[in-house]
Amino acid sequence: APAILKNRPRVLVTRRWPESVEAQLAERFDTVFNVDDTPMTPAEFRDALTRFDAILPTVTDRLTTEAFDISSPKTRLLANYGVGFSHIDIAAAKAHGIAVTNTPDVLSECTADLAMTLLLMVARRAGEGERELRAGQWTGWRPTHLVGSKVSGKTLGIVGFGRIGQAMAQRAHFGFGMKILVQNRSRVAQEVLDRYQAVQVDTLDDLLPACDFVSMHCPGGAENRHLINSRRLDLMKSDAFLINTARGEVVDENALVQSLTYECIAGAGLDVFDGEPKVSPALMEFDNLVLLPHLGSATAETRTAMGERVLSNVIAFFEGSTPADRVA
Ligand code: DGY
């Protein structure tokens, strides 16, 4: 039975969500949907903080220090629709006594599927092939046509071994017989590594020279900004590929452009960009770069599950219990 909250909290949903979850939100809360489906600006956010009990933002809402610059917010909960929350100034939320939740688990498989899609596409030159065929330029099979790199049996470096990193290891190890190297900010339990016959290395600098593929699965934010910079791209093998489904800022895009220009790495697959949805025109120049518009969690099943996860967090919070996915 649906949980009925006595005083229907006033809730702002900043983007359009899958219909079934929007219906549940409208049923349980005094819900306002941003029907324009546009990202919120810091000024709009400041205004919303004075009017809503809870705000349900996404990665496109820039909840920066400036956005929290008000004296006494009405808002008590930011229930983010998404697992990454580096777009929210957590310290500012905490300073105002505002709780923050996210949506882990439900998107790990689909995000890892997409990372594997990018990895396969770039290694097997699938984007290039599709563009050629659609342009009517395919002249037929030949032994030297669009020859890519074999994936099976190669070494994959996973940066960040949380839920999504582990889902990636699962696919790469069991599906493609890849050897898994892991770099993570803390020590990963041996039994977790053993599941994928993975080996943890101490530093990113140890990992990069040893890998044929490097896939980013760490959080974004200031701490990991430009984790992959020009020095580290130089540490990669010249026939290696970089995959990023984490956050745009973890890769220095200018350094990546340089690295691709001088063929210091073989290619890259990106689902996220620094300053997205703007994509640096320089990135468009490379055929050995696969570019996708932040599709990691974009399946009907996952987007609905993410909404349901937010819903549970909001309900728990206003019922007075601790939401399962509280991050601050
Ligand atoms: C996530 O869940 O972090 C996605 O990138 C969208 O925010």
TrEMBL record:
<dbReference type="InterPro" id="IPR036291">
    <property type="entry name" value="NAD(P)-bd_dom_sf"/>
</dbReference>
<keyword id="KW-0560">Oxidoreductase</keyword>
<feature type="domain" description="D-isomer specific 2-hydroxyacid dehydrogenase catalytic">
    <location>
        <begin position="12"/>
        <end position="327"/>
    </location>
</feature>
<dbReference type="GO" id="GO:0005829">
    <property type="term" value="C:cytosol"/>
</dbReference>
<protein>
    <submittedName>
        <fullName>Glyoxylate reductase</fullName>
        <ecNumber>1.1.1.26</ecNumber>
    </submittedName>
</protein>
<feature type="domain" description="D-isomer specific 2-hydroxyacid dehydrogenase NAD-binding">
    <location>
        <begin position="116"/>
        <end position="296"/>
    </location>
</feature>
<dbReference type="Pfam" id="PF00389">
    <property type="entry name" value="2-Hacid_dh"/>
</dbReference>
<dbReference type="GO" id="GO:0030267">
    <property type="term" value="F:glyoxylate reductase (NADPH) activity"/>
</dbReference>
<dbReference type="GO" id="GO:0047964">
    <property type="term" value="F:glyoxylate reductase (NADH) activity"/>
</dbReference>
<dbReference type="InterPro" id="IPR050223">
    <property type="entry name" value="D-isomer_2-hydroxyacid_DH"/>
</dbReference>
<dbReference type="Pfam" id="PF02826">
    <property type="entry name" value="2-Hacid_dh_C"/>
</dbReference>
<comment type="similarity">
    <text>Belongs to the D-isomer specific 2-hydroxyacid dehydrogenase family.</text>
</comment>
<dbReference type="InterPro" id="IPR029753">
    <property type="entry name" value="D-isomer_DH_CS"/>
</dbReference>
<dbReference type="InterPro" id="IPR006139">
    <property type="entry name" value="D-isomer_2_OHA_DH_cat_dom"/>
</dbReference>
<keyword id="KW-0520">NAD</keyword>
<dbReference type="GO" id="GO:0016618">
    <property type="term" value="F:hydroxypyruvate reductase [NAD(P)H] activity"/>
</dbReference>
<dbReference type="InterPro" id="IPR006140">
    <property type="entry name" value="D-isomer_DH_NAD-bd"/>
</dbReference>
<dbReference type="GO" id="GO:0051287">
    <property type="term" value="F:NAD binding"/>
</dbReference>
